[in-house]
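re the bet — no i am not wrong, look at it urself. input seq straight from the record:
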Amino acid sequence: MGFVLSKGMEQNFQKQQEFMLLNARLQLERQLAMQNQMRERQMAMQLAWSREFLKYFGSFFGLATLGLTVGAVKKRKPALLAPVIPLSFILVYQMDAAYGTMLQRMRAEAESIMVSECERLDVPHGMPTFESIEKSRRAKAHLTTLTEK
């Protein structure tokens, strides 16, 4: 009778383990999906910011170039056009960030770094472990209790 009971309990235990594994997998998939959605939203906000900044900077660049050109012609000093050169580099950079292929180039470079220079991506002191986090938490809790006394 004990054998029959233990066999049923073992089957029940295995079913529960499979359920827990399936549940953990589902939870991980949901977390990954949520993190990806958050990443996409953050990237969309950065892109929207770049486009909005470009509108304002483009207006500034146009007015500054017009004013500097008029001043250079009236005063007959071509040196007044000198600020247009660095401002145009900034404008082109912002246009590339907002509407160009900068993101694709950055992604390709990041993938290349991850493949060929992965040692540069190591976290100082390695990845945190449960033990290291608990050790730090206990130390802080111990310091808190000492300062309260």
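see?? The chain has one domain: 2-122. told u. also The chain has four helices and no strands. so pay up
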